[in-house]
Design brief:
By secondary structure, the chain is an alpha+beta fold. It folds into 2 domains: 6-281, Butyryl-CoA Dehydrogenase, subunit A, domain 2 (Beta Barrel); 286-476, Butyryl-CoA Dehydrogenase, subunit A, domain 3 (Up-down Bundle), CATH 1.20.140.10. The protein is built from 16 helices and 14 strands. Strands 2-1-10-11-7-6 form a 6-stranded mixed beta sheet, with no helix packed on it. The protein has a 4-stranded mixed beta sheet with strand order 5-8-9-12. It is globular.
């Protein structure tokens, strides 16, 4: 099959019929037509369609060595700098197409699956580990252009530093049994973005594991018996691209996953009942290298969009001559250029790993993941400050179609825009930074790779500070 089209993606998701709950009701019928999901599904479909665009398909796909079919380039295991740059070009095209708003565009999880397969040898010979299943999933995913969501997070019942769940009925999903068919999982997992809207869900114990029952990894179809997706409130503001230019297209639902005695077949299991594997695999693998490379590429596209929104606001109300405005937009420019430089540095300093794959350097990527959670909320604040009171009183598309249109045209015009265009720009700025969709975006970027303090600690522990302390010690001639 190879790279699919948007139509094929939608048809496949509709056929799945997963167990999704929203507002206390089970979703019935075509999920692609549901008001809460149709926008994001259509946007994802448009990404798949780009793979067949005559002007873009060579930048978005490569030919499968096994079948000769075109494969999505985010599945490519890079062995050269050209491979790495080709992957980034592909991810840039998709990120720019969605303005960086789709945190879980398919290339993110494709990169994760590719990274796991590239590092599967880590699990060779270990008890209860099945690296062949990871490689099999990778081959099946790339040949069928599968889409994935994932969940690494357990319920926040007790966030103390050492919390071992001894409850009689599992809260965090855990392996409660196994038989000749597979492992049995019961409990819950959090924050599967686009849960139920993908072919499969990757479930992984991402470190900090103390008990065998919590040490597992697998991928299963989204319609697996006993698997339930519980949605948060939808942040879609409506169908109107004027009123809700972002949420109507890019609202990614977040879900709680409930496993009610879910049978995970043996050929879907990567490992189980192995604490060492659960704590080591994700850190020793190339997961962080490739997942972060994709994420930073997307965040750069998002920052470019934010800068464009801020620039339009400035132009529309003619405030570019104020130095405080220039200083605020310069903050966004500095953030943008810093992120770009770190991404390029990670590629220039990429190194071949022991299995022959070229990994982007983690130090600049880790630096980027420490910077962005701090600067993105500031970007939102800058847009709010530039827009000022103009962000508060905003008519709708329907108002401009009513008898009050002459009043709006007269009193809401901008220095360089008609009232209708001025409001359209301000509504975009409002939805990006002040709506439920926008504030979710801010929180999402704050915690994209986890707790910012923990990320800082990981950077400190992994960075070669000793090289610099030795340099100073040598200068002082001390030991």
């Amino acid at each position: 099959m190879g790279a699919i089209s948007g139509k094929e993606f939608i048809e496949r998701i509709d056929r799945l019929n997963p167990n999704i709950w929203l507002d206390g009701k089970k979703i019935e019928g075509r999920i692609s037509e549901h008001p809460a999901f149709k926008g994001i599904i259509k946007s994802k479909a448009s990404l798949y369609d780009l793979q067949h665009d005559p002007l873009l398909h060579r930048k978005l796909t490569y030919l499968s060595p096994e079948t000769g079919e075109p494969i999505g380039l985010s599945y490519l295991q890079p062995k050269t700098h050209e491979d790495l740059l080709n992957r980034r070009t592909m991810m840039e095209i998709w990120a720019n197409h969605t303005h960086g708003m789709m945190g879980r565009s398919p290339d993110y999880m494709n990169s994760v699956i590719m990274a796991f397969a590239s590092s599967a040898a880590i699990l060779e010979g270990r008890e209860n580990c099945f690296p062949e299943n990871i490689r099999s999933l990778y081959n099946r995913a790339k040949e069928n252009d599968l889409s994935f969501t994932h969940t690494f997070i357990t319920p926040q019942v007790n966030r103390s530093q050492l919390n071992i769940d001894f409850s009689k009925e599992p809260i965090a999903a855990r392996v409660i049994d196994h038989n000749e068919k597979g492992i049995i999982v019961k409990g819950a997992r959090l924050l599967a973005t686009q849960g139920g809207l993908t072919d499969e869900v990757l479930v992984y114990s991402a470190g900090g594991v103390y008990m065998d029952a919590d040490a597992y990894a697998f991928s299963i179809p989204s319609n697996t018996k006993g698997l339930k997706f519980i949605c948060r409130e939808s942040f879609v503001g409506g169908d109107s691209a004027y009123n809700s230019p972002l949420s109507s297209q890019y609202e990614e639902m977040d879900t709680i996953l409930v496993f009610d005695h879910v049978l995970v077949p043996w050929d879907c299991v990567f490992f189980y009942n192995n604490v060492e594997a659960a704590n080591e695999f994700i850190s020793l693998s190339s997961f962080h290298n490739y997942a972060t490379h994709q994420a930073v590429t997307r965040q750069i596209a998002k920052t470019e969009f934010v800068l464009g929104v801020a620039g339009l606001l400035v132009e529309t109300i003619n405030v570019s001559s104020y130095q405080h405005i220039q200083e605020k937009l310069s903050e966004i420019i500095i953030g943008l250029e810093t992120m770009k430089a770190l991404l390029i540095k990670s590629e220039v300093e990429a190194e071949i790993d022991e299995w022959g794959y070229l990994r982007p350097n983690m130090a600049p990527l880790q630096t980027a993941t420490n910077i962005f959670p701090r600067i993105y909320p500031r970007f939102s604040e800058i847009i709010q400050l530039v827009g000022a009171s103009g962000m508060v009183t905003l008519p709708t598309e329907e108002d401009f179609k009513s008898a009050i249109k002459p009043d709006l045209d007269q009193y809401l015009q901008g220095a360089s825009r008609t009232a209708e265009d001025r409001v359209k720009i301000f509504r975009l700025a409002w939805e990006l930074t002040m709506s439920s969709f926008g504030t979710r975006q801010t929180q999402y970027e704050r915690y994209f790779f986890g707790d910012p303090i923990r990320l800082s600690s990981l950077l400190y522990k992994s960075y070669p500070i000793d090289e610099y302390t030795k340099m100073v010690s040598d200068f002082l001639n001390i030991t």
